[in-house]
Amino acid sequence: MCLSTVYIQSEDRRIKVMQDVAQMEYTHEGYLMIGLLGDQKLIKGVIRKIDFVDDHFVILEAEK
Amino acid sequence: MGIKISVCGKGGSGKSTLVSLLANAAQARGLATLVVDSDESNSGLFRMLGFDQPPVPLMALVGGKEGIKEKMNQPSILSEAEITLEQIPSEYINEKNGFKLISIGKIHQALEGCACPMGVLSREFLKKLRLGPDEIAIVDMEAGIEHFGRGIDNSLDAVLVVVEPSFESIALAEKIKELASGINKQFYAVLNKISSESLVAEIRANLNKRGMETIGVISYDASVFLSGLKGDTLSRGRATRQAGEILNSLLPAKSS
């Protein structure tokens, strides 16, 4: 599935933040994620990994 | 609650034909019938069901593939937690003689990209769809098995696989049974394009050996074949009666 799942990683925990993310945009407040059905979430963090093949995920590291 | 079933199988095995026959049978039984066209490739289901043109696809609610980024952040019925048949705007539904048709979306151009957004839309729509006690949703799936990977079948009550007389069709049915069992779905095989009782016995035995139950048989029907060739509405003959028998078997099975 090309739409992605976004996780936030903090130390040894990885938490799913949003599924079926169609668009992700950097803003001054953080990353704005927009889902296919119109749902939106803002998340703060630093992108650590994006997987374009297996499972299609984005991992952000939580800001300390 | 109503029942949601999918019809899947090998390309060309007769999925859209069985969907149309089941829809006719369900309508004859007095059920409010929704056909969900979840195949992004085929183009003729609306004709088989007797409509002059297809409905506006649900993909248009999120802007279509070309406008998806502009429109997907606007609220629509797809943002609701539950969707009933009455909530779907009329332009997205074709309605005639007691049954309704909606379409998720179609591939229209070369190089337009993957069908993943349609897969998500199909999965979410079927998950949110709430049916009343006398309502049935029949989903015409894309050929093959990718819909299982996309999770489209997760919210369905039963999976029907159409088996035509070919080894490939039987082998794919076995794989579909494995995938359906993996998500705890009821699974039934329907034999299609059957020309003799001996063929029924042979395929049924083969399916039994592979752990598959046959819920019904659709005989080769020259009128259905001819309707398919011309792109006409399916005639209501023997095949529709046989689809009615499948429905009779399926509905008590669901309620038990």
Characterise the protein shown here.
The complex is a heterodimer of chains A (64) and B (256). Chain A has 64 residues and is mainly β. Chain A has no helices and six strands. Chain A has one domain. Chain A is 0% helix and 67% strand. Chain A has a six-stranded mixed beta sheet with strand order 4-3-2-1-6-5, with no helix packed on it. The mean pLDDT of chain A is 90. The longest helix of chain B has 18 residues, at 238-255. Helices cover 39% and strands 20% of the residues of chain B. In chain B, a hairpin with a 2-residue loop joins strand 3 (94-96) and strand 4 (99-103). Chain B is built from nine helices and eight strands. Chain B has 256 residues and is of the alpha/beta class. At the A-B interface, strand 2 of A face helix 4 of B.
CATH architecture of chain B: 3-Layer(aba) Sandwich
Mean of residue pLDDT of chain B? Answer: 89
User: What is the overall number of helices of chain B?
Assistant: 9
The count of β-strands of chain B is 8
Class of secondary structure makeup of chain B: alpha/beta
Let me know the number of strands of chain A: 6
Multimer state: heterodimer
**What's the helix count of chain A?**
0
By helix and strand content of chain A, what is the structural category?
mainly beta
Indicate the CATH topology of chain B: Rossmann fold
User: What is the rounded Rg of chain B?
Assistant: 18 Å
The largest beta-sheet of chain B arranges its strands as 3-4-2-5-1-6-7-8
The total number of structural domains of chain A is 1
Largest sheet of chain A: 6 strands, mixed
- Classified by CATH, the class of chain B is Alpha Beta
Order of helices and strands of chain B: EHEHHEEHEHEHEHEHH
Largest sheet of chain B: 8 strands, mixed
- Biggest interface pair, residues each? A-B, 13 and 19 residues
Strand proportion of chain B: 15-25%
